[in-house]
Amino acid sequence: MSAPSLDFDPSTVSLPRGHFIGGTYRSTNEAQIAVHRPSDGQLLGHIPDASAATVDEAVSNALQAWKTSGWATQPPRERAKVLNRWADLIDHHAVSLAQLETVSSTRPVAEAHSSDVPFTAEAIRFFAELADKLGGDFAATRRDSVGFIASEPYGVIGAIAPWNFPLSMCSWKCGPALAAGNAVVLKPSEMTPFSTLRLAELAIEAGMPPGIFNVVNGRGATAGAAITRHPDISKISFTGSTRTGAAIMSDAALHGTKPVTLELGGKSPQLVFEHLTDLEYTARCIVRGFTSNGGQACVAGTRLIVHKRVVEPLLESVQSQLAKIVPQPLWQSTSSYSPIISRGQAERIDSLIAESLASGAELIAGGSYFENMEGGYFLRPTLLVNVSASTPAVREELFGPVLTVQTFEDEDEGIALAGHPTYGLCAGVHTRDIGQALRAMRRLAAGTVWINRYGRSGDMIIPTGGFKQSGIGKDLGRQALEASMRYKSVLIDFDRM
Length: 497
Ligand code: NAD
Known about the structure:
By secondary structure, this protein is an alpha/beta fold. The protein contains 15 helices and 22 strands. It has helices at residues 52-68, 76-92, 94-104, 109-130, 166-179, 194-205, 220-229, 242-254, 279-291, 311-322, 343-358, 392-395, 411-418, 434-443, 477-482; strands at 19-21, 24-26, 32-36, 43-48, 136-139, 145-153, 156-160, 183-187, 213-215, 235-239, 260-263, 268-272, 301-307, 362-365, 382-385, 402-408, 423-424, 426-430, 448-451, 467-468, 471-472, 485-493. It has a seven-stranded mixed beta sheet with strand order 14-15-16-13-12-18-19, with helices on both faces. It has a six-stranded mixed beta sheet with strand order 9-8-7-10-11-21, with helices on both faces. A three-stranded antiparallel beta sheet has the order 5-6-22, with no helix packed on it. It is globular, with a radius of gyration of 23 Å. The termini are far apart. The structure holds nicotinamide-adenine-dinucleotide. Residues 305-384 form the PI-PLC Y-box domain. It comes from Ralstonia wenshanensis.
């Protein structure tokens, strides 16, 4: 029996509204922000722009729930039961969540259903399983004393998320924070607020105490800044651009010297050496690496650094694969290519391409939009050659399906070109020479190195996070749970009792 089609009519999807505070939807009279459907630019609905008073109400609810609900003090395995039920509910509502994600973000429905929704549930399950595994340490001290390091939750964690994978980003932020016993106030991106609200509703259905997970909507400069600055928020976990990350870090320093986890931007290389096991496969990695989600992934592999001897056949294969890409509305199950999130973002990409061409780059594919896509900005996959480190498209994170191509003749030159002065999020290395792969891995300043693949797997045990201006700290992995706790050092002189 074939799987049922995931095609749906976007006008039938109902949208949650308002904020989610204290276990219930909360509407306010605040200024409204229009939210558009990226696939065709249609107006989807509005969300309120939370004032500092609304953020304060959410934080008060969170703090009160954290102090009184028993969430923080119960055995971690009891929290894990709630988190596991939450993950089960997410799986149970996979179709409706995928539809909600598709109408309000750049995610094609089949991918939302086969990866975003199950990976969201998996991330929550991973942290539920880890909840009672990391408790602290016993210290080597004098023999007449006992020293230990006890972990405890911070209290209320403020989380601020980007628009590119709304469901997953919510689970990466909330999974570790909640498993560690914190309460959370999360602000999704003002461009993609809806699926996060629905997740908060499901958390209540799973038995999470009201107030432990709150969602406030609004813009960064208002709602986001109010979260960062709130005196009762003890830690900030942020994913977004490097520029915003720096503003948040400075705000968090000025308002309580709060610790921050920052998952920021990237400009990641795909380094292709001369000797490959399978050139077609490598070309597929390159294509997927820079076109997935329309290139709007922090990890997008947007700089191809390729050995001179393989550049021609590799580009030929890349171009023949790109020629097969046909965009469709995201609510058709066969759709797999994403539009640029907004007109403003499309204009930014256009101007960076224009500046790159003005500086001597040559366009060998793309550079224009697919026609007849009814208001959606589906940029053709774009290839730029004759570029250097100073070309805008090499230097800047474009957040679109644009690949620059640079060539090299020996290993040292290739590794040097793969480095970037600003970013160090991830890197792909393609070679059949294990020594070469490991030398490159050691020398590349990147938080993740993929060898003979490009992109994350569903293994939540593998943390993600950048070096340099790509971030501080990690999401996922046990590192994310550890970063959601603070550590208390205890020393007992037991002979004095
Ligand atoms: P962005 O920085 O514009 O916004 C991210 C979030 O921050 C939004 O919710 C926004 O409202 C909020 N915000 C903006 N200004 C703020 C302020 N002054 N104070 C508090 N909050 C503020 O990023 P974006 O355009 O939504 O997302 C794309 C960026 O996210 C890219 O740079 C991408 O590389 C990065 N990203 C990184 C990772 C990672 O794991 N490293 C993952 C996904 C996305």
